[in-house]
Amino acid sequence: MRALLNQRFITLIVLAAVIAALPLIFPSSYYFRVASLVWVSALAAIGLNVLMGQAGQVSLGHAAFFGIGAYAVAIGPTHLGIPPWAALLVGAVLSGILAYLVGRPILRLKGHYLAIATLGLGVLVALIITTESRWTGGPDGMPVERLTLFGWRVSGSYAWYWVTGGLLLVGTWIALNLDETPTGRAFRALHDSEVAAQVVGVDVARFKLQAFVIAAVYASFAGSALAFMNGFINPDQAGFLHSVELVTIVVLGGLGSVVGSIVGAAVLITLPQALTIFQEYEHLLLGLIIIVAMIFMRNGIVPSVSSLLIRRTR
Amino acid sequence: MAEFLQFLISGLTVGAVYALVALGFTLVYNASGVVNFAQGEFVMLGGMVTVFASAAGVPLPLAALIAICAAVVIGLLLHRFAIEPARGASAVTLIIITIGASILLRGLAAIVFDKQFHKLPAFTGDTPVDVLGAAVQPQSFWVLGGTAVVVLALYVFLEHTITGKAVLATAANRLAARLVGINTSTIMALAFGGSAAIGAIAGILVTPITLTSYDVGTLLALKGFAAAMLGGMGNPVGAVVGGLLLGLLEAFGAGYISSTYKDAFAFVVILIVLFAAPQGLFGRRVVERV
Amino acid sequence: MKSKTALKSLLVAGVMAFGVSQGALAQGTVKIGSVLSVTGPSSFLGEPEDKTLRLYVDKINAAGGVAGKKIELVIYDDGGDANKARTFATRLIEDDEVIAMVGGTTTGSTMAMIPVFEEAKVPFISLAGAIEVIDPLRKFVFKTPHTDKMACEKIFEDLKKRNLTKIGMISGTDGFGASMRAQCVKVAPNYGMEILIDENYGPRDSDMTAQLTKIKNTAGVQAVVNPGFGQGPAIVTRNYAQLGMTGIPFYQSHGVASKSFIDLAGAAAEGVRLPAAALLVGDKLPESDPQKKVVTEYKQAYEGATKQPVSTFGGHAYDGLFILVEAMKRANSTDPQKIRDEIEKTKGFVGTGGIVNMSATDHLGLDLSAFRMLEIKGGDWNLVAAGS
């Protein structure tokens, strides 16, 4: 037990150390921005990982909740006069409620059918956001009022680096601990075998729903953070391609591994930036790297690398 | 009445393309359990290769043949270098691999071809045909007819040839198929090649109507996948019905409800169907082994 | 298990260190940045812009550069993603240290990037269409394409001349189409226009016969307007002919201003009218037209180098680049603030889009006369004579 407790703590400390240390090697605020994007995507991915990796359900429409969080902090202050931090919470609550309401019927589906249903959900949310331009500014998006925390107006790449880093730490801590709670164990049980879990008395439907709601709330916070950071939001953030990107991050990093989601985000966000030198060949190379990575590290980067290291140290 | 027919025929035409993409999905899924998100790219290749080959002076029918062959080769390469090496990996991993493949193929197409839109001449001309008041492009008949031929050919192949039966056997139970001496690897390659050919044919048939460019594949893959699910994943009849149904839902949604929300309408219907029939319209009731 | 997270940090740091800046500015070069949608749904607009910028920067450098300095062009492809555009904007300012930017293919990406350039006080000449780029006015943001509001006004002006006041609209739900549609709805009353039916299609849809059938069956529709760009309008035009609607006057937007539209729409494009820059009818302009020389030269250069038909989007990039270059020459400095001031003083600049006269209150510098009303006849663009 002690050992396990230490492992989670160490993970968190190392993550905090990385977040604190990276600024020392960053030559300009551009790097802070990219890093902030990584933290934001990682946060959303950790949530999705709870659903996909721990509870074993698939969601191809997760960006919908990201978008809801983002637009909540855009619409709230601009159209409804709510202060930004309140809009942040409202967005999370809305996402959670939507996940709860939609999750009950949707989660009865399995496998690819669940994938298509979540895909449909994503498409629907993105469509509504794009069409209701009076509220959302339409396909070109709308500006977002900056976040003010206790009188401090959060803006600029440096400030956001620390805020998103902090959010990521909190999110990571919760997810790591979740794994060790009865809820986490229930997730893993139903991932392995739903029927067996039911036989031992796990209320499968209830836990699936919990995982779905947790994932939705994570995504909402991440979306709100991005909207505040950019000062601008548009419907692409809720779109199908973004959902696919999130799934790719989770799987690439390692399904079920919280650290994996962070690594996956780091790779998938910084890679396109690094590949710009290849100009035209950027997408070609990105596709190739994804294929090769998944062939050789089929369980994801973190699990594959750590099992490699374990074998080496034997 | 004329209005209804107009919506019906345009819905069926678009639906036929979705049906062929869904059929491609189904074929690959049955043989290997993989959901191939690069399926839409085969449709793109069918159209684009034909356009560029014929622009280089090759007569149209030959250009179409070259396109189909090119797609089949890419399909086989995809199986050999992206799917085969990852044999045994989880379903999600394989899906991500196919997503990576579709990004790669798109990037390749952007470089080899270009990013413009292109069209192909309609096979028998552009003059609309009047069908009880609805104006139908002659190419629509080619699309519907072509789809029917492909479906029929696939049916004959699967039910009445040994290789076809081997595919069905592999789909039913891979291990048992191997035990009776079927080379499942070859069968899977065949499935990839076959689905590529089907996709390419769809692309060639429909480009005179819908135009083509290097990135038409993504949306088609999405819709084809939705259609395959609607019809019941793994069931060829379901794939065709699902595709046609999706096309009709879009057309009638745009025509009778709201053009802005037609995609929403289609997806809502799919969701409702799935709640009522969680295995899709024609999906087999899957018995889970505990 | 420590190794897991240590490795993770190594991985993260390593991947990030990838993008470390190369080296300091070489003596005698000046960096100009550009974020364009070369791939993605707006590549129809972004690709000609990309090709134009590269072509002309090479030409300028071959002729000795600007004020003795060679231009180093830094282009990033945002793929139509506004969030990526924003990141590249920060990269251009912080990492590449550009002194100005000509880019922002779409309104979405432009709006996302504006705060970065305003804060860094670096001039940004946008290539996006919507009027909101320059309205409200921002000190460092300019644009070269005609606004979508102007397009609507030009179309309505022509409709009014032909005594057609009841119209149907069919718009793409992409940024360009939706924005122009909103502007048209706004200015319609000013010209006495009544919009009887208002349909939409997705920018990647392949069949619009359902929407057009509804328009066809709406009694009293005298003309149809189609805000949109890319392949959507081409398909709408083909469906229009398919349904036998060519008797009803059909107006496209400047979003189709490239020969490829005529190629794709084929015979169905006959008789279609649209507002566009003089660039498309360079060969039909009278010798006395002040734009004739510029547009003819650009068309020859672009088509010769790329073997693709010229488009007004590339023309906007040409205008943007040369407005910037002229301003740099006048300022005789690479200080972004001074360059901005000179851009604002642009007067009488003859571009592909029109004659540009900017001011402190007008960061576009074009008026309605910069748009010409064209009609497609015989597979080619034709100027609509005044009074027809």
Mean pLDDT of chain A: 88
Largest sheet, spatial ordering of strands of chain B: 1-2
Report the top-level CATH class of chain B: Mainly Alpha
Q: Which H/E pattern describes the elements of chain B?
A: HHHHEEHHHHHHH
How many H/I helical runs of chain B? Answer: 11
Number of strands of chain A: 4
What's the number of domains of chain B?
Answer: 1
Estimate the helix proportion of chain B, in percent: over 70%
What name is given to the CATH topology of chain B?
ABC transporter involved in vitamin B12 uptake, BtuC
Radius of gyration of chain A: 19 Å
CATH architecture of chain B: Orthogonal Bundle
Name the chain pair whose interface involves the most residues: A-C, 56 and 48 residues
Fraction of residues in β-strands of chain B: under 5%
Query: How far apart are the termini of chain A?
Result: 23 Å
Q: Pick out the low-confidence regions of chain A.
A: none
Low-confidence stretches of chain B are none
- Beta content of chain A comes to under 5%
How does the helix and strand content of chain A classify structurally? mainly alpha
Cross-sheet strand order for the largest sheet of chain A = 1-4
Quick structural overview:
The complex is a heterotrimer of chains A (314), B (290) and C (388). Chain A has 314 residues and is mostly helical.
Structure description:
- The complex is a heterotrimer of chains A (about 325), B (about 290) and C (about 400).
- Chain A is mainly alpha-helical.
- In chain A, about 75% of the residues lie in helices and about 5% in strands.
- In chain A, β2 (about 150) and β3 (about 150-155) form a beta hairpin.
- Chain A is globular.
- The mean pLDDT of chain A is about 90.
- Chain B has a single domain (about 1-275), classed as ABC transporter involved in vitamin B12 uptake, BtuC (Orthogonal Bundle), CATH 1.10.3470.
- Chain B has helices at about 1-30, 40-55, 60-85, 90-110, 140-160, 160-170, 175-180, 185-210, 215-230, 235-255, 260-275, and strands at about 130, 135.
- A two-stranded antiparallel ribbon of chain B has the order 1-2.
- The relative contact order of chain B is 0.21.
- Chain B is mainly alpha-helical and about 290 residues long.
- With about 400 residues, chain C is of the alpha/beta class.
- Chain C is about 40% helix and about 15% strand.
- Chain C is built from 12 helices and 14 strands.
- In chain C, β6 (about 165-170), α6 (about 175-185) and β7 form a beta-alpha-beta unit.
- In chain C, α2 (about 45-60) runs parallel beside α11 (about 310-330) and α5 packs across α6.
- The longest helix of chain C has 20 residues, at about 45-60.
- Chain C is globular.
- Chain C starts with a helix and ends in a 5-residue tail after the last strand.
- The model of chain C is unreliable at about 15-25 (pLDDT under 50).
- The chains are: A mainly alpha (about 325), B mainly alpha (about 290), C alpha/beta (about 400).
- Chains B and C meet through α1, α8 and α10 of B and α2, β7, α7, α8 and α9 of C.
